Amino acid sequence: MGLFGNKNITIYAPVSGTIKQLSKLTDATFAQKILGDGLAITPNSGEVKSPLAKGSVINAFHTGHAYGLSTGKGPEVLVHFGMDTVMLDGKGFDVKVATGDKVKLDTTLCEVDLKSVKKEAPSVDTPIIITNDSIGTYKINFLKKSGKVEAGEPIFELVK
Amino acid sequence: MKSITVKIIDPVGLHARPAAVVVKEANNFGSDIVIKANGKEGNLKSIMNIMSMAVKTGEEVIIEANGDDAEAAITAIEKVMKDNKLV
After folding, report:
1. Does residue A39 contact residue A142 with C-beta atoms inside 8 Å?
2. Does the active-site annotation cover B15?
3. Which residue in the list B2, B15, B36, B56 is annotated as catalytic?
4. In this complex, how many residue pairs, one in chain A and one in chain B, have their CB atoms less than 8 Å apart?
5. Do B52 and A62 touch (CB under 8 A)?
């Protein structure tokens, strides 16, 4: 948990809920890891926090359903709340950050109206992935593969 | 240098799913490939770059490739965009 030197990058759960393998997601783009590898969490709360202890927002989509974050070391993290949630065009998403903002573990990215999004979107499963084009020579080491998780818990790390 | 101008017809614009396919194709080529839309320019080999440009439906974009395989890159990218009903 950050004690093994500063070469590894730890990715933390941005939402509390239950871990789901990417391959179990209904959207092929994520299930087939076309964008990248990582994990998904089925959230039980609408609070979305930073998945990084130290990073910056490359991209806060105006619709609030997806966030691109930079680790500052090359790899970029994509947090995508729900499947096909881009269609909601922002309804139910209260975005708390802007492009360029620095983030810490306790930074809130967004507050989602979980009840409303559950009704309107096919799924609230939230993938957290490292984009293929940014992972470089890092490898993903999963720290959790299933079960319940709280926001702020380490879920995987990038190791060289 | 080779370039094409296309109009995005996907109702949701150039977002995650189609962006991923185009980026994957762009990464098959050695050329530098950029996408230009509404005054912004992004690296077509970067998923984050493309998504942050938030290209909407109905917008016209220019795809420009520079390098030895620029011609092949543009042809392949155009095909992928058409196959995925992006343009």
Report:
1. yes
2. yes
3. B15
4. 49
5. no
The answer to whether the beta carbons of residues A40 and A149 sit under 8 Å apart is: no
pLDDT of residue A5: 57
Please identify which residue in the block is written with the tokens 């017809």: B9
Q: Is A59 on the interface with B (CB under 8 A)?
A: yes
Question: Nearest 5°: phi and psi at A26?
Answer: -80, -20
Q: Where are the alpha helices (DSSP H) in chain A?
A: 28-31, 114-120
Q: Please tell me which residue of chain A has the smallest CA distance to B27.
A: A133
pLDDT value at residue A63: 86
**pLDDT above 80 for B16:** no
Phi-psi region of A81 (alpha: psi -120 to 50; beta: other; left: phi over 0): beta
What is residue A3's predicted lDDT score, i.e. its pLDDT?
59
Residue in B68, B10, B76 with CA at minimum distance from that of residue B44? B76
A38 touches chain B (CB under 8 A): no
Using a CB-CB distance cutoff of 8 angstroms, which residues of chain B are in contact with residue A27?
17
| A80-90: pLDDT as tens digits | 999 988 888 89
ipTM for the whole complex: 0.74
